[in-house]
Amino acid sequence: MAIPKFDWEAQQRFLQFYEKERLRYFSLIWGQKKPAIDSWKPLQSRAPTFEELAEWFQEGKPTNIAIICGGASNGLVALCFNAPDGASEFFGQKLWDKLLASTFVVKTQRGPHVYLRSNVLIPGQIIAKGDNSSWLEIRTDGMYIAAPPSLHPSGVLYEAIGVESIARPKNLPAFIEQRVAELGLKARLTQEAPKKPAPAEEYLEGKQSAKFNEIAVRKLLENCAFIQYCRDNAAALTEPYWWAMVHNLAVFGQVGEETAHELSKPYPKYTEAE
């Protein structure tokens, strides 16, 4: 099988779409899923600069594209099926046909990737079915996906088969939970907690965790330039920044959630339910 050549014009077209949809992206090594940059983690809380993008994506420089999931990309949730008929079985044929006509879907060598958005946090999950230990991967915050027109390690291009838009269905977490139960499947978190906590985790357990969270949130407000920026510019904040702020605070329990609500009140799209 002939390996497809890198298509700079196709990459430019897709990058324009990703920009329009406010997706945050970076470069992968051509034909691989490995980052071509030193570290992508900081991009979860900041957008890449124009200089960085110009360095990563150039004519004559074959690269794959990675899209960061979660709050960095306006609540992006990627349902990655590792079975050709996985999506039609999970959604049901009628809903699957509707999704193909209403959201961005990518055909991969193993199965379709369905791009959706969620207004609430969804944990990263892996769902097994029969002998397929990763029949469905739900990729959210802290994860990324290879996107068109990237080249899969097998030598097959990632192909867009849906529309150039990303749907935001209501109650996506509840729908996923319901379908997993109806199909008799079980989900496991992408990052399983260790059986024996590390010393730092032991400190977070029980009575001391609330105190730790309180101190951590206070230190963020005092020292984190990103949180301070979001606080001071809440009324005009873009949605990806608001999502990133909420996600950064939500990990610190009740005090983090209360602070996120307080800082979000001037944000035009804020509702207490979110």
TrEMBL record:
Residues 15-176 form the DNA primase/polymerase bifunctional N-terminal domain. Transmembrane segments: none annotated. Pfam families: Prim-Pol. SMART domains: Prim-Pol (SM00943). Gene3D superfamilies: Bifunctional DNA primase/polymerase, N-terminal. This is DNA primase/polymerase bifunctional N-terminal domain-containing protein. It comes from marine sediment metagenome.
